[in-house]
Amino acid sequence: MTEFRLNDTPLLSRSAVGRAEELRSDTDALRAGWRDALLLRVNHRGQVRVGDDGLVFAEATELGPEPQRGAVFLGIRKDRHVWAVRVQALTGELADLRMLGGTLDDADAGVLTGALAMLNWHDSAGFSALDGAPSEPTTSGWSRISTSTGHEEFPRTDPAVICLVHDGGDRVLLARQPTWPARRFSILAGFVEAGESLETCVVREIKEEVGVDVRDVRYLGSQPWPFPRSVMIGFAAVGDPDAPLTFADGEIAEARWFTRDEVRTALELGDWASDTDAPLLLPGSISIARGIIESWAGAATES
């Protein structure tokens, strides 16, 4: 059986930003750092301003003389505090993380990924899950407090597994969701349910989505995925290519077993954005799915 590991750290896991958790409640330090802090403005489409050198930051003092409610302290980048804030509109050249992920350096990748995850959480956490009262941000954006009871809530992250199913040899199972255009395939994924281990989730999700029983579930790596606020936990598992494929839960429109050579050819053609008429198109570079597929495709040449 072919064993493989991730060849590289997933792009969105490359953060080079010091989170500086110890400063989140240090009002004096945050006020002092605000004077020359960087501010990342993010619109409701997840877009930011970009320039030739990556993300375009504003001066935090443009919001006011001290840290503002609604802004989130992300940490320290190149010795300067970094904050993010949601805005209604932006001008200039705009792009989102899906477009930018493969071009950003480690510092900018960490800033934008963290900003999106935190701002997306705040957008959906305006009321306390415990008592239903309005909640307000505190701890420089890293928690919210109920205005009724003072109950504190912290950022929610939804864990999801993503798994490459192979036959132990030179075939891999790829699938397409109903909303995806024809020829666009990826590996299988699903959210972890309450009271469920990650490995159990892998087995359940693959069985539910394509009807295949898998074994030898093996962890590969993980990646933040702030769409809206998830973490993707990557695995590989072995399945029987002769087992019938069934799509019982409606989440998969099509699934097929592809050979390693077919996958290698598809990788050479680019990704989903390619204008080729090739029969197989694979995810882009910011997805851990791409890294897992690339690692599996290259494993046989090393064995």
TrEMBL record:
<protein>
    <recommendedName>
        <fullName>NAD(+) diphosphatase</fullName>
        <ecNumber>3.6.1.22</ecNumber>
    </recommendedName>
</protein>
<dbReference type="InterPro" id="IPR015797">
    <property type="entry name" value="NUDIX_hydrolase-like_dom_sf"/>
</dbReference>
<dbReference type="Pfam" id="PF09296">
    <property type="entry name" value="NUDIX-like"/>
</dbReference>
<feature type="compositionally biased region" description="Polar residues">
    <location>
        <begin position="136"/>
        <end position="149"/>
    </location>
</feature>
<dbReference type="GO" id="GO:0016787">
    <property type="term" value="F:hydrolase activity"/>
</dbReference>
<keyword id="KW-0378">Hydrolase</keyword>
<dbReference type="InterPro" id="IPR049734">
    <property type="entry name" value="NudC-like_C"/>
</dbReference>
<comment type="similarity">
    <text>Belongs to the Nudix hydrolase family. NudC subfamily.</text>
</comment>
<keyword id="KW-0479">Metal-binding</keyword>
<dbReference type="InterPro" id="IPR000086">
    <property type="entry name" value="NUDIX_hydrolase_dom"/>
</dbReference>
<feature type="domain" description="Nudix hydrolase">
    <location>
        <begin position="155"/>
        <end position="280"/>
    </location>
</feature>
<dbReference type="Pfam" id="PF00293">
    <property type="entry name" value="NUDIX"/>
</dbReference>
<keyword id="KW-0520">NAD</keyword>
<keyword id="KW-0460">Magnesium</keyword>
<dbReference type="InterPro" id="IPR050241">
    <property type="entry name" value="NAD-cap_RNA_hydrolase_NudC"/>
</dbReference>
<dbReference type="InterPro" id="IPR020084">
    <property type="entry name" value="NUDIX_hydrolase_CS"/>
</dbReference>
<dbReference type="InterPro" id="IPR015375">
    <property type="entry name" value="NADH_PPase-like_N"/>
</dbReference>
<feature type="region of interest" description="Disordered">
    <location>
        <begin position="131"/>
        <end position="153"/>
    </location>
</feature>
